[in-house]
């Protein structure tokens, strides 16, 4: 726990626990919500080329995950941490221009 506290700049073990719970809830939610969304667009693993289906599904889960992470973090009182985490992750993926301030 001490390594995570130091790496993430946290002050208590409780914060680490809350953040781990948020990651778990959000990851499960993003994976779970992917199926109804792909069904909505008429995509299924039985009727769609597996490469296309899983590529779309992975991208979809990633977008849902990044979108909902700060929201779920807010519900647990950790919005600032997760907003900074999301910005950092997307910046490393080359999407830094999304967060430039005027």
Describe the fold and architecture:
Helix content is 74%, strand content 0%. It is elongated and about 50 Å long. It is mostly helical and 102 residues long. The protein starts with a helix and ends in a 10-residue tail after the last helix. Helix 2 crosses helix 3 and helix 3 runs antiparallel to helix 4 (79-92).
Instruction: Report mean pLDDT, rounded to a whole number.
Output: 88
The major sheet is characterized as: none
Low-pLDDT regions: none
- Structural class, judged by helices and strands? mainly alpha
Q: Taking Cα atoms only, what radius of gyration do you get, to the nearest Å?
A: 16 Å
Shape: elongated
Name the helicity range: over 70%
Number of strands: 0
Order of helices and strands, N to C?
HHHH
Our estimate of the beta-strand percent is under 5%
- Provide a count of the helices: 4
Query: Whole-Å distance between the termini?
Result: 38 Å
Features:
102 residues; mainly alpha
Write the layout of secondary structure elements.
Layout lengths: L1 H7 L4 H28 L9 H26 L3 H14 L10
Short description:
The protein has helices at 2-8, 13-40, 50-75, 79-92. With 102 residues, it is mainly α.
């Amino acid at each position: 726990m001490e390594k995570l506290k130091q790496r993430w700049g946290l002050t208590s073990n409780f914060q680490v626990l809350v953040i781990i719970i948020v990651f778990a809830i959000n990851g499960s939610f993003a994976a779970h919500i992917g199926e109804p969304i792909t069904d909505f667009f008429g995509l299924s693993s039985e009727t769609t080329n597996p490469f296309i289906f899983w590529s779309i599904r992975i991208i979809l889960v990633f977008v849902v995950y990044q979108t909902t992470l700060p929201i779920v973090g807010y519900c647990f009182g950790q919005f600032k941490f997760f907003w900074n985490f999301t910005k950092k992750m997307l910046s490393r993926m080359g999407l830094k221009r999304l967060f430039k301030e005027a």
